[in-house]
Design goal:
Structural class: alpha/beta
Number of helices: 14
Oligomer: single chain
Number of domains: 2
CATH superfamily of the largest domain: Spore Coat Polysaccharide Biosynthesis Protein SpsA, Chain A
Strand order of the largest sheet: 2-18-10-13-9-3-4-5
CATH architecture of the largest domain: Alpha-Beta Complex
CATH class of the largest domain: Alpha Beta
Radius of gyration: 23 Å
Shape: globular
Number of strands: 18
């Protein structure tokens, strides 16, 4: 774009503060800004800002419980049936794994990508290596090489790729690992003006884990899957060191029930635990956030004394590749987060706010469930499949994850 084209585009959407940033930038920064201005859908940003004025109301939604399969309570016949169906698909090369690894380890006091973090095992294995060990075990078990797709972020992409290269891909077939970047959206202030960051370019934030569908299509991941004959993809975050990325039982249930999406749940620790739970919303499968249900709903129990809304979404998802492509061609709804965000003002001064001053827009992976008539949900044991590493100390910290990890593998040896 030439200067007049940029000016015209920014004038149209009342974003002339970006042109002021461009005018005072050096040549390198100008080139990056030019790329951003050309790439960004300013109409989309304007429309998203308008949604910040809307009051969210879930009163008209009909939220009901949803059926699930409890892995622990499967009888021997059903377990064997689902296992055989799932294992056949894996052995036939129809299975892949996608890991969302766009985050930095900042909250853990770690300067690199979260996947490179050492949770404190005696082996000092990083989270990435822990996940690779799981994949290698399954490759050996099923006689295949499972394709692994790793979604990075703009800030950690180069460091992530270099980490794998420096460690020779931890012995994994490097042709079966592909990296791709997560999408981003501009952040804007409370008047709808797009912010400029400390580097003098447009301040962008990751578009949420729901953006993975479009990122996979845009980066040729679904195309690569189809070339390899892959039909199914497990999609989960990098920060769960007990994640079972290869689960023939969930896959077998999905194939047997002829559904194209699935997810894993753990029972809520208590009615007030702040987690999203699986449900049916207006007849469609979905996840309801803890902010969307009343205390009565959160505490409601069935005839067996179990919580009606007790199946926590732990972000362990499975999709047919056709669903990934279908969702990528549509727009998931965006959710608004009101955040504190430092920025460079129109005079070139750094502003560090003391209270939330900006909007971040992100989509959530579970909103894709709403596009389907049904899905499979497999309840699993928290202590066997859920050891998140999110906080530096306390709940969901390296210390708790390490204990869960060691307890699980020590129990396997008994």
């Amino acid at each position: 774009m030439d200067y007049n084209e940029m000016k015209s585009k920014l004038e149209e959407y009342n974003q002339m503060q970006i042109l002021k940033a461009y005018d005072r930038a050096d040549e390198k920064t100008k080139k990056e800004l030019e790329c951003q201005i050309e790439r960004i859908d300013f109409k989309q940003v304007a429309d998203l800002f308008e949604t910040t004025k809307n009051e969210i109301n879930f009163n008209n939604d009909v939220i009901e419980s949803i059926a699930y399969v409890d892995k622990e309570k499967l009888n021997e016949e059903d377990y064997k049936k689902y296992l055989e169906i799932g294992e056949k698909a894996i052995k036939d090369g129809k299975y892949s794994v996608v890991t969302m690894a766009g985050g930095q380890g900042t909250r853990l006091g770690h300067s690199g990508p979260k996947g490179t973090f050492d949770i404190g095992l005696d082996s000092h294995k990083s989270i990435f290596e822990i996940l690779i060990d799981t994949l290698k075990e399954n490759n050996e078990k099923y006689g295949v090489i499972i394709p692994w797709y790793v979604m990075t972020g703009k800030e950690n992409h180069e460091d992530t790729v270099k980490f794998f290269e420096d460690n020779n891909y931890f012995g994994y077939d490097k042709n079966s690992i592909k990296f791709f970047q997560q999408g981003k959206l501009p952040m804007c202030d409370e008047s709808g003006k797009i912010l400029i960051n400390e580097q003098g370019v447009i301040k962008e934030a990751a578009d949420g884990h729901g953006g993975i569908f479009q990122s996979m299509k845009k980066n040729g991941i679904t195309e690569d899957m189809e070339k390899r004959g892959v039909e199914w993809a497990f999609v989960g975050p990098v920060d769960n060191v007990l994640v079972k990325m290869v689960d023939p039982i969930l896959l077998g249930i999905m194939i047997d029930k002829k559904v194209l999406a699935g997810g894993k749940s753990t029972v809520k620790a208590n009615p007030s635990e702040k987690v999203g739970v699986f449900c049916r919303r207006n007849g469609k499968p979905g996840v309801v956030e803890y902010t969307e249900i009343t205390q009565e709903m959160a505490e409601r129990v069935d005839e067996n004394g179990e919580l009606v809304f007790g199946e926590s979404h732990i972000n362990c998802n499975m999709f047919n590749v056709k669903v990934i492509e279908e969702v990528a061609n549509k727009n998931l709804p965006y959710h608004i987060a009101h955040k504190k965000a430092s920025f460079i003002d129109e005079n070139g001064n750094l502003v560090v706010p003391e209270k939330p001053n900006a909007y971040k827009f992100e989509s959530f992976i579970f909103d894709a469930f709403d596009m389907l008539d049904d899905m499979a949900i497999l309840r699993v044991k928290r202590e066997e499949e859920f050891a998140p590493v999110k906080n530096a100390a306390g709940t969901d910290s390296p210390e708790t994850a390490k204990k869960l990890y060691l307890d699980y593998y020590n129990n396997l040896k008994k």
